[in-house]
Design goal:
With 233 residues, the chain is an alpha+beta fold. It is 53% helix and 15% strand. The chain contains eight helices and seven strands; from the N terminus they run αααββααββαβαββα. The strands form two sheets. A five-stranded mixed beta sheet has the order 4-3-7-6-5, with helices on one face. Strand 6 and strand 7 form a beta hairpin. The longest helix has 45 residues.
């Protein structure tokens, strides 16, 4: 039966291991000066248990590190491409907003561009105001409790992203299309005191999620907010 080492001996053993590790790090040419030591070192393989030389193990470690770096590089390249695509879409959206001559133009152009350029299945805009009979459906009475409670959910003017929100909220936002929407994003229109909300919905359950970045969504909300303000007086 193997005896347990006293705590002092364990500490001494660990200290020696740390000292050896530090020495080898400080003297990377050690095995060049003592090649016979290198030839006697064998390491067990992680998977098969077969003994391999230190050189073979180093090659294996370097290969694994290289694969990790290649994967990270691919992710960076993909992210850069996605950012270029999003930047282009935002630029076209901003250009279109500049060319709008009325509130109707702003709202209609927003619906068209977001569905086409951003590949969204549902887009909704709700604005606090005074609805008139036969007027735009986006205008919601100022005392609408559902819309006001939604405003209080925004923290620091940041968008809210996630899968499907509660059924009553989904129905309030997307009406008859609520059942089709698998993920959505809610963007406040107005930073400190929102006066409206932009709702984006998609059938892709992975398009919007709580951990995603919201920089582009925030910029989108800012552009729409300024465009609405120009034509609402």
């Amino acid at each position: 039966m193997k005896q347990k080492l006293p705590s002092e001996e364990i500490q001494t053993e660990l200290s020696w291991e740390e000292a050896v590790a530090r020495y080898l790090e400080d003297h990377p040419d050690y095995f060049q000066r003592y090649p016979e030591t290198l030839s006697r070192i064998l390491l067990s393989h992680e998977t098969g248990g077969k003994a391999v030389s230190l050189i073979e193990r180093q090659v294996q470690v370097l290969r694994e590190q290289n694969q990790t770096l290649q994967r990270q590089l691919r992710e960076l390249v993909n992210n850069a491409r996605e950012n270029d695509v999003l930047s282009g879409r935002l630029h076209r959206f901003a250009t279109a907003m500049i060319g709008c001559a009325s509130l109707d133009d702003v709202l209609d152009t927003t619906y068209d561009l977001l569905r086409q350029e951003f590949k969204l299945d549902a887009v909704v805009i709700l604005l606090r105001g005074r609805p008139v009979q036969g007027g735009r459906a986006e205008l919601v009475p100022e005392d609408d409790r559902r819309l006001n409670s939604l405003f209080h959910q925004f923290s620091g003017g940041k968008p809210i992203c996630g899968g499907k929100f509660e059924d009553s909220l989904m129905s309030y936002l997307f009406s008859g299309r609520a059942a089709e929407i698998k993920s959505s994003a809610l963007i406040p229109l107005g930073e400190k005191d929102p006066h409206g909300v932009l709702g984006l919905g998609t059938q892709d359950p992975y398009r919007f999620h709580p951990g995603m970045g919201t920089v582009y969504l925030t910029r989108l909300g800012e552009m729409l907010t300024h465009s609405l303000a120009r034509h609402r007086g």
